[in-house]
């Protein structure tokens, strides 16, 4: 079985990092919930869209080292690899930020994966060769098809429901905060990695 998995907000959790940086810079009050989306929405409400854009460039670039994996994700992928699964990371992010210094966002992502043990063969399939960082959503969808994924996990409903999403691929929405809208019944929805592991292990039994 072949699993494709998104990177940002699926493997990497940015909630604490975005919240802490925005609080430290005095952009938001500490009452704002510690979630990336809540920080974004508050900055937009305050008319600080430019600050939000620059902050993303820092967090997905040089400050990504301070982000943490979602609880249980590394163990889950190791379990799947031990069960015979092939695991690929398939994500899309721009090469450089839309504003601010031209950090290499792809290099930052690969460094983070290496640092946290996701490029070991016991976790993914073939080290850095298992990581595909595309710059556009269309290229990400094409990559999922080229890799012949049996399953794909992402945090974005709009990607999983895209008209060009490859047919025959089982779709799973990772929704750790349980706030995404209703989806078609054939799309799984899970809030933690232990639940995902149970689903996929059962699928390969």
Write the layout of secondary structure elements.
Blueprint (H helix, E strand, L loop, with lengths): L1 E4 L6 E2 L1 H10 L11 H10 L3 H11 L8 E2 L3 H10 L3 E7 L12 H11 L15 E4 L2 H10 L4 E4 L2 H4 L9 E5 L12 E4 L2 H11 L2
Parallel strand pairs: 1-4, 1-6, 4-5, 6-7, 7-8
Antiparallel strand pairs: 2-3
- Quickly give the CATH architecture of the largest domain: 3-Layer(aba) Sandwich
Number of helices: 8
Fill in the CATH topology of the largest domain.
Rossmann fold
Strand numbers in spatial order across the main sheet: 5-4-1-6-7-8
Described by its quaternary structure, the protein is: single chain
Write out the CATH superfamily name of the largest domain: HAD superfamily/HAD-like
Rg calc = 17 Å
Order of helices and strands: EEHHHEHEHEHEHEEH
CATH class of the largest domain: Alpha Beta
How far the N terminus sits from the C terminus, by CA atoms, comes to 11 Å
| Total beta-strand segments | 8
Please describe what this structure looks like.
- This protein has 205 residues and is α/β, with parallel strands linked by helices.
- It has 2 domains: 2-12 and 69-203, 3-Layer(aba) Sandwich (Rossmann fold); 15-66, no CATH class.
- It has helices spanning 15-24, 36-45, 49-59, 73-82, 105-115, 137-146, 157-160, 193-203, and strands spanning 2-5, 12-13, 68-69, 86-92, 131-134, 151-154, 170-174, 187-190.
- α4 (73-82) packs parallel to α8.
């Amino acid at each position: 079985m072949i699993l494709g998995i998104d990177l940002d907000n699926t493997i990497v959790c940015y909630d604490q990092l975005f919240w802490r940086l925005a609080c430290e810079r005095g952009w938001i009050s500490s009452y704002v919930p510690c979630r990336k989306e809540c920080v974004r929405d508050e900055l937009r409400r305050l008319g600080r869209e430019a600050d939000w854009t620059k902050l993303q460039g820092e967090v997905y670039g040089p400050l990504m080292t301070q982000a943490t994996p979602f609880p249980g994700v590394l163990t889950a992928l190791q379990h799947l690899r031990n069960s015979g699964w092939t695991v690929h990371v398939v994500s899309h992010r721009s090469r450089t930020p839309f504003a601010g210094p031209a950090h290499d966002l792809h290099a930052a992502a690969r460094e983070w994966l290496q640092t946290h043990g996701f490029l070991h063969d016991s976790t993914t399939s073939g080290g850095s060769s298992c990581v595909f960082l595309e710059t556009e959503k269309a290229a990400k969808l094409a990559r999922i098809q080229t890799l012949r994924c049996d399953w794909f996990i992402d945090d974005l409903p709009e990607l999983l429901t895209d008209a060009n999403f490859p047919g025959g691929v089982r779709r799973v929405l990772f929704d750790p905060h349980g706030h995404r809208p209703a989806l078609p019944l054939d799309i799984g929805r899970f809030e933690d990695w232990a639940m995902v592991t149970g689903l996929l292990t059962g699928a390969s039994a």
